[in-house]
Please model this.
Amino acid sequence: MTPADAPGTGSTETARSTEPSQHGTTVSELDSPESIAAEVSAGIEAFLELKAAEFLAISPDADDIGRALLEFTRGGKMIRPVLLWWGFQLASGDDSSRSALNGGVAEAAGSLELLHAAALIHDDVIDHSDTRRGKPALHRQFESRHSERRFQGGAEPFGVAAAIVIGDICLALSEELFEKSQSVLGITPSARDLRATLRRDVMVGQYLDVLAEVVPLDDARIGERAWEVLSFKSAKYSVEQPLLLGAALGGADEEQLAEISRFGLPLGQAFQLRDDVLGIFGDPAATGKPAGDDIREGKRTVLIAESMKNLNSEQTQIMAERLGDPDLSDSEVAECVSMLTESGGLDAVESFIRSKHDEALSVVREWATDSSPVSSTRTRIGPTAQRQLTKFAEALSYRKS
Amino acid sequence: MTPADAPGTGSTETARSTEPSQHGTTVSELDSPESIAAEVSAGIEAFLELKAAEFLAISPDADDIGRALLEFTRGGKMIRPVLLWWGFQLASGDDSSRSALNGGVAEAAGSLELLHAAALIHDDVIDHSDTRRGKPALHRQFESRHSERRFQGGAEPFGVAAAIVIGDICLALSEELFEKSQSVLGITPSARDLRATLRRDVMVGQYLDVLAEVVPLDDARIGERAWEVLSFKSAKYSVEQPLLLGAALGGADEEQLAEISRFGLPLGQAFQLRDDVLGIFGDPAATGKPAGDDIREGKRTVLIAESMKNLNSEQTQIMAERLGDPDLSDSEVAECVSMLTESGGLDAVESFIRSKHDEALSVVREWATDSSPVSSTRTRIGPTAQRQLTKFAEALSYRKS
Model:
């Protein structure tokens, strides 16, 4: 079902938000990530086509905005939409009337993907990144367009200006799509608060990340700060909060939201710790990023903070000089990389990943009525749903790209 | 009343949005711009203090975000909040129960001011502006902070990165404050659409402005494009849409919204045309901007487009070379300025301002029951309200700064 076909669209608010959640019912099977991604993508595409037509009606010059966003939003991994969808399913149970609400859930999920696109567009400007999802970063695309069309003035500032504004437009569209979902799903105060927290925390996390990269490496808060960035810029925003928002939209109460946090937060932390490892040790062919990319970029990850603990003063100095220097040679990067291994930093992070991942899975086991028939949890799942959650969690914690 | 005291806060949705508007009642007096500005400012300040505490709870490093926004939002002209407030009053009439809703109206109005702050923060990055409201632009403030705190890496890119992210956070807070207003005021589909259109149009207008500055001066669409930028980046966003949003929140129907547009759009156009004139002919002591600033910045205003019509080929070439060159000497700027006068461009724009302004005021006269006792308009005002609207409109169209 496309969002436009969803029943109830156009009404101001439905009573949906005040219905009790389906406590006690067991979720036997979750919708597959592939089917969710397909439905959410189709919804985003239809919405952006509509918006592109509106932009074009404002001015022929505005046509590039819609085109650029349509292209940019294709090919995302759709992690957040899948998690929002599953959060909704976990809270609303195997309710047969649920599918009538799928159009609204797809819109809420699509809204997260647009928020993510906006964050990436601005991120790439901030990090001076050249590529994204295998294509030139948005600011680079507009920089090229400047040259192709023989515009005046500097091509690079034009690219940056266009990307800042188009990122802002994408943020606005994310709000608009979320608001559309409300005509189907309604909105509770807790869902509204979660949405506000989600969109704000990721930006505060981004600020902390920007700050972390300019603070001297021997700053006392390096470890704490790395965990703050990891949690707010990524773990909460990418995993915990999409699940929570979906659950709140599905009618979860405070108790169920707390259960879902106990699964989502450690899994999100494992997800981002893996990202940090891949940013340095990942296979460039798989990740699409050059080896040791995070060293040249100067990211202050938990991996770096853990490694610093065991470096001698000479090594510390070398690391401080090199981290964030975009012109490092491959052998200089390789020396830094081997310090991360030899210091025990990598082992420490792998051990964090294991323990965070296991913590998340232990919650999934509690939810599985099979293994715990007298489960007192609000969230109840059958063996198929348990396998699906376990498989997805493993893909987040132990992925290669 | 502060927003936190407003009745109904915390409820999901109120029935307010479905009450009929107060057609036929006459609005005798509007709240004064000063009292509205004071109430909205206090609301923004209280809200940002709350948010600053939340940021601080995330990390001590995040404290600068809240502080910067608190400082940045002080000293705005509050044009949009006043217009939203008045739109609400015009639609809801002299209803004595209205004052109970003022907390919600102040939040909705404050939300527009935060959206405007976000737009200015990003604007200043895009335009490489050094100052804003008599203080260093936000990116310059963070650039200085980088040096003061002996951070590593480039100070300028840090300032830009911080301003992009803090602008994004300010956008998010604007949404949050608007959502708060809904617990008091409720929301109709028309108000929701107006909010979506408002926040999007200003950004599309900003994109068109960025594009206009790089398109060659002899482009066939220069005149059309200047009017598009003027209307979408400013006239609608600064005047028409705040009035409409306030009116929709106050219960206006389509017919009343159309009446308000007939006043708001031409007034908004007069407001921005005046801005264009002041950007070149304004007294630097009054505007706080250097004389001829818009010439060095390369703004492609209606004033420029009108002047180009009557320049000879030699003059056209000089203008094309100089417009947007930040290093022009004062005498080079002065030559351009005199071309704008001699070409008749300035006269044409002054005549547009007069006719747009008069068009807006003729609508106000229709609303005044005094002069037209059998008025068929939805909007009805008494002599005091008429004087207030006239005075405010004159301040927008004929201001000196």
Q: What stands out?
A: Chain A has 16 helices and two strands.
